[in-house]
Design a protein that fits this description.
310 residues, five-stranded antiparallel β-sheet, Uridine Diphospho-n-acetylenolpyruvylglucosamine Reductase, domain 2, alpha+beta, Uridine Diphospho-n-acetylenolpyruvylglucosamine Reductase, domain 1, 8 helices, 30% helix, Uridine Diphospho-n-acetylenolpyruvylglucosamine Reductase, domain 3
Length: 310
């Protein structure tokens, strides 16, 4: 675990080399869609991939643990915060449209922006994913998708940083599966190379409008949330299992199962991360009791409990 002395030392070193943004004791509630989470000891936003590699070199030499943050839309940070560093990829936002349907998108590009720009240019393949929050890096790492379409289907290769070295992985090495890839902690996706199919721009933009209207209609929620909380188990739908367990509208503290979509947990305004985590655990217990199925979270849960943070 990172010590306060170690984090202060690395903060001072980063302050002299980082061209991007650097913050200390940064509340993660400012950077997650649930609007909860304790402080990160060190929070940095590298200006570009070279800045990222320089920062990683310092963190590795000082043995400071780190985690990468995309859009913060699929993440629950515990109330004790994060010991070590959080690397925000927001400034890695270069988006290039090349010939033959090839697109290169850096990790910080917002997924919706990529899909909109592709549709405008008559490039098809990801329009069914329109409306899913997050970034290209997050979509790559978790193979974001909807029934019938996944992000990884369009990925030809990706630039991955591991152990301070950046290399290109082909799709076979990325090993995409249902809401997963081969990427693990200690790795950072820097860029995805995608291949789109030709389409008609106006028709594709019509699809985007329809998808957005559909998501607003079927996933209407009433507060800050992280999207779908649980993975769909084989042959079943998480939201149906939660509804059947009688948990629609159930609450713990300031966290509530959405009255509109049972696989969403909303922050009613004053929720703590521990409220959301307790509600997740309650859902798992009661759904398993009623159906025999153990729901697995789709959201990533990180950080320390309050007690561990003093």
């Amino acid at each position: 675990m990172a010590t306060s002395e170690g984090c202060f030392r690395v903060f001072e070193k980063l302050r002299h080399i980082l061209r991007g943004k650097l913050l200390g004791r940064e509340p993660m509630s400012r950077h997650t869609s649930w609007r909860v989470g304790g402080n990160a000891d060190v929070y940095l936003v590298p200006a570009d991939r070279e800045d990222l590699l320089a920062a990683l070199s310092v963190l590795e030499k000082e043995a400071i643990p780190w985690m990468v943050l995309g859009g913060g839309s699929n993440l629950l940070v515990r109330d004790g915060g994060i010991r070590g560093a959080v690397i925000d990829t927001a400034a890695l936002n270069r988006l290039e449209f090349l010939s033959g349907g090839e697109v290169r998108a850096e990790a910080g590009v917002v997924l919706g922006q990529l899909i909109e720009e592709a549709a405008r240019r008559g490039l098809a393949g990801l329009e069914l994913l329109y409306g899913i929050p997050g970034t290209v890096g997050g979509a790559l790492a978790m193979n974001a998708g909807v029934p019938g379409r996944e992000f990884g289907e369009r990925v030809e290769s990706a630039l991955i940083v591991e152990g301070g070295t950046m290399s290109r992985w082909d799709r076979q090495r990325l090993r995409f599966g249902y809401r997963r890839s081969a990427l693990t902690s200690g790795m950072i996706a820097v860029e995805a190379r995608l291949l789109f199919s030709p389409g008609e721009s106006e028709a594709l933009q019509t699809v985007l409008r329809e998808r957005l209207a559909y998501r607003r209609r079927t996933q209407k929620v009433e507060g800050a949330n992280a999207g779908s909380v649980f993975r769909n188990p084989p042959g079943a739908k998480a939201w149906e299992l939660i509804e059947e367990a009688g948990l629609k509208g159930a609450s713990v503290g300031g966290a509530q199962v959405s009255r509109f979509h049972a696989n969403f947990i909303v922050n009613q305004g004053k929720a703590q991360a521990e409220d959301i985590l307790a509600l997740i655990q309650r859902i798992q217990k009661e759904v398993e009791s009623s159906s025999g199925i153990r729901l697995e979270p789709e959201v990533k849960i990180v950080g320390e409990n309050t007690a561990l943070n003093g």
